[in-house]
Amino acid sequence: MDDLREQVELLESKANLSTSIQDIQKAIDLLTTARAKIAADPHTAPITLAKLQSPFKQALKQANDDLKPVYSSLGKYGKALDKKFKDKPLPTAENDALSSHPQLINRAIAMHLLREGQFSVASTFIDEASRNPPHPEPTASTPNPYLNESWEKDLATGTFNSQELQLQFAEMYHILHELRQNRNLGPAIAWARQRSDTLEARGSNLEFELCRLQFVCLYAGRDDDDIMDESAGGPLRAWAYARSEFGPFQGRYAREVQQLMGAMAYWENIMDSPYRRYFYNGSAWEDVAASFTREFCSLLGLSADSPLYIAATAGAIALPTLLKLQNIMKEKRTEWTTQNELPVEIPLPPAYHFHSIFVCPVSKEQSTDQNPPMMMPCGHVIAQESLEKLSKGARFKCPYCPTESHPHEAKKVFL
Amino acid sequence: MAELTTTKLNAESHLLLDQPLLRLPYELSRRTFKNAQRYIEHANKELPPLLTSALQSASKTSSPAPTLESLDTLISKLTSTKRKLEALRSEEQKLNASTAARIAHLDALFSVPSLVDVKYDEWSRTRLVRLLVDYLLREGYAGAAEKLAQERGVEELVDVDAFVACHRIERSLRVQRSTGLALAWCKEHAQGLRRLGSMLEFQLRLQQYIELVRMGHEGGGGREGMEGVENGDEGDGGVEVDMRDGGGGFGGVNEKLVEARAHAKKYLSASGDFDLMNRVGGLLAFRPWDEVEPYKSLYSPDRWTHLAALFLSTHHTLYSLPSRPLLHIALSAGLSALKTPSCHSAYASSSGNASSTTTTVCPICSTELNELARNVPYAHHTKSIVENDPVVLPNGRVYGRERLGVYNELVGETEGWVRDPVGGRGERWKLKEVRKVFIM
Question: Which residues form the CTLH domain (chain A) (predicted)?
Fold first, then answer.
């Protein structure tokens, strides 16, 4: 990168068009001086003009010569660029599996923009995209793009035309804005309370976390106008809040509620009390906002981080490996035979593993719906096909321990 | 065996997607330079002789008026050259600044220690915006592209202007069916196109010819000449065309057809493709409504779409832009790398689902990408990846013991009992029914 940068700096500082422009200006100056002289004294015209010939030519030639450093600098920069990307070919269409589904891509982008809160970009995009629908192009796996297949169209236009998603994300951003900027828990609590049952089934304690934060706010009297150094106004308000709101939490969060109540006793010196962590937790607001976003997206069936972002990043990480594979295949003139599965393992950071993966220790194949993992009575798991091959329908020994069992006793498991 | 996971970042090989980022401004810089060179060369060739002739005429006459006039002409010509150069200079400045910004952006990647670093996350988000803007521009959604670039502050890293110009030309071919803009573009890039051996200009000229012939056949109704068609000299046809009258309703030689023949002589005859030349000649005899191949397809309006596509591909090759949007390339690779058989399974996965707080939704299962990923291959794994200390519930679902515990605590399940995180408040079992499972 350094030599590229050097070359560009050189281009900008020295090797640019400004010297040539100066030369042209010099030629213009020569002409204007001569013109003034001739206008003042017409008799000097022949001699002035004769004297002008060679400097004028010179000035123009200079303008041309001064282009040379620009030319050579550009050339050097070009070479540096070639060198930098020598072993990095431009990605080809072979790697492209998506051109046949432009509507789906557009939908994914629209959803991405909405979830990122870029509503005006999203609406411009949706508007432009519906006026100029994209054209599918054939790809290796889908030589005949099926734009006319109705499910894809419905799927794509369904989201495009409905304002619902936009409204939902607008609500999410409204709540987040209230949380982060205005420190107002009201809308978030209202949202959580409406979905109390669903959230509880998910094992989410968002509602309680929000209410607890509200309690803490009231306790600290943060949003209050009058100074309450000696009065217990804050804690009293918090107490009142707890009495009216904490009822439903008694079952699941009895301990937490007790602790919050215990804090009442320390209202004068909460800083030194064991309850300090509840009241002086700097990241509390961000934590609540993050867990709100997560729950909100999950309830819509969406991942908390933009899938487009995760997939594009994973793609960039995977590309070097895939490129290597492509080169090897080209060299050996082989085709990869398993259409459903990539032929190489792509190393990704652990955060990019979302599902558990079961690879049968016998056949080394990944489990699928057709070949699910089966647990034998001993607790070892192998793929169904391996099980059938090993047992041939009769009692057999587990390949990993001495236990014998009948294939009927094996049980399908879900990872 | 390959490593299962990696957090190592190899910045050098990570730049696979980023070549166009530097290539395009470089090609644009070169074009700017070429234009400057042309202007200066032109001035060098044209102006000194003018000055010499001024000298000659000045020595002949005593009146200063003509001398002053010719000097004024020279001054105004040179001033206009200077103005043009200054415009190029400001373009050059802009390009240099954006190149510098791009190099700085790419360079930032080299100081990122690993793939799990926050800095990588930031960098990758900027890259996504770049890829999105690139995609939007390619699809012709310039308004959204510009807005997105502005809102995310990446104007320096994207090439809105270049793509807008490109799409104006593409649309002029596809929608307005006019060759003017495209031919002007060809003229400006003549050198590069020659190097590529591009047939674009020839195809455009051929289209002009076809349109002239069409107008001729349609009874000279269109008196308005086609823009972009220089008036070819009306000499005798060099292309030997058998003008046997196809039973048409035009008497004698139609004016437009003559023009078409002249056009063909001027622009098409040099191609050396005699087969094509025969067809070109035959076009004079067959009218657009005669359903005869191969003339029918030459007359077909589809040719405009084809020309538009040819222009786009020529443009992209000339500027070293990949033929498909980079977003497609990144996403295709990413979808495969992330996809697992569980993502399109008929059974709910125990992990990476939306049904409990203890796991995050898998991006491939998320609505945005699920259908897109249906046709890509899934990632290859040589080893199982499961949570620590896996246990199985009586219904066959496997969880890490810790996560199962956390979930049951969160939902406030009574001690000694467990619930399945998938399915919420469904069945519950005694804790002792939960069995250890061995996954190798």
Answer: 168-226
Q: Residue B54: enclosing H or E segment and its boundaries?
A: helix B19-60
For residue range B120-169, what is the model confidence (pLDDT) as tens digits? Answer: 989 999 999 999 999 999 888 988 999 999 999 888 899 888 899 998 99
Please give the torsion angle defined by the CA atoms of residues A300, A302, A304 and A310, in that order, rounded to the nearest 10 degrees.
Answer: -170
CB-based contact B93 A93, cutoff 8 Å: no
For residue B412, is pLDDT > 80?
no
Task: Specify the length of chain A in residues.
Answer: 415
Above 90 in pLDDT, residue A373? yes
CB atoms within 10 A of CB A376: 26
The count of structural domains within chain A is: 4
Q: Cα(B258)–Cα(A270) distance, rounded to whole angstroms?
A: 99
Q: How many CA atoms lie within 13 A of A85 on its CB side?
A: 20
Euclidean distance between CA atoms B405 and B425, whole angstroms = 15
Classify residue B112 by its DSSP letter: -
What does the DSSP 8-state code read for residue A232? -
**β-pairing verdict for B417-419 and A404-405:** unpaired
| A40 close to B (CB below 8 A) | no
d(CA B124, CA B116): 11
Which of A157, A102, A352 shows the shortest CA–CA distance to B328? A102
Instruction: Kindly list the domain boundaries of chain B, sorted by start residue.
Output: 11-164, 198-300, 390-436
- Assess if residue A337 is contained within a domain: no
Measured CA to CA, the distance from residue B386 to residue A354 in angstroms comes to 10
Q: Give, to the nearest 10 degrees, the angle between helix A284-299 and helix A206-220.
A: 150
Is there a contact between A173 and A186 (Cβ–Cβ < 8 Å)?
A: no
Rounded to a whole number, what is the distance in Å from the CA of A142 to chain B's nearest CA?
Answer: 8
Q: What is the DSSP string of A270-283?
A: GGGSTTHHHH--TT
**Residue of B72, B355, B398 lying closest to A414 (CB–CB):** B398
Same domain, A247 and A188: yes
Q: Token digits for B78? A: 């040179």
* The length of chain B, given as a count of residues: 440
3-class secondary-structure state, position B110: helix
What is the sign, positive or negative, of the torsion defined by CA atoms of A249, A255, A256, A259? positive
In 3D space, the residue among A208, A215, A170, A214 whose CA is nearest the CA of residue A192 turns out to be A208
For residue A374, the 8-state DSSP code is: E
Closest by CA position to B382, among listed A339, A381, A345: A345
Q: With helix as H, strand as E and coil as C, how does A214-265 read?
A: HHHHHHHCCCCCCCCCCCCHHHHHHHHHHHHHCHHHHHHHHHHHHHHHHHHH
Among A131, A303, A365, which would you mutate to test the B interface (most chain B Cβ atoms within 10 Å of its Cβ)? A303
Same domain, A173 and A280: yes
Residues A227, A288, single domain; the answer is yes
ipTM: 0.81
- For residue range A337-372, list pLDDT tens digits in order: 656 788 888 888 888 888 889 999 999 999 988 999
Going across the sheet that includes B390-392, the strands are: B398-400, B390-392, B435-436
Percentage of residues of chain A with pLDDT beyond 90: 14
Chain centre distance of CA A302: 13
Q: Could you tell me the residue range of the domain that residue A374 belongs to?
A: 355-415
Bond from prior residue into A372 cis (ω within 30 degrees of 0): no
Closest CA to B401 of B415, B388, B420: B388
Q: At what angle do helices A102-115 and A164-180 cross, to 10 degrees?
A: 30
Estimate the share of chain A in helix, then strand, then coil, as percent rounded to the nearest 5. 65, 5, 35
CB contact under 8 A, B377 and A340: yes
